Amino acid sequence: MSLFSHITHQHIEFKLDLIQQNAKFFLEVLHAQKSNTLEWVIIVLISFECVLMCLDMSGVGAKFFSDFTYFQ
Length: 72
Known about the structure:
Largest sheet: none
Number of strands: 0
Oligomer: single chain
Order of helices and strands: HH
Mean pLDDT: 86
Shape: rod-shaped
Low-confidence stretches: none
Number of helices: 2
Radius of gyration: 28 Å
């Protein structure tokens, strides 16, 4: 193996490792964004459930939900 082919092989291997590291990084960022969105959806749903529970416990819920035929 000549010196030129050895250097070229090392250069290609370095570039491939760099591409692999970048791909892993961007996949981790994408995963973190999805996780963050999912956490916010869960927080909103739990908050909505708490509001509904408070309305139901206060007695206002019966008046509020009587307009909806689904709950009758």
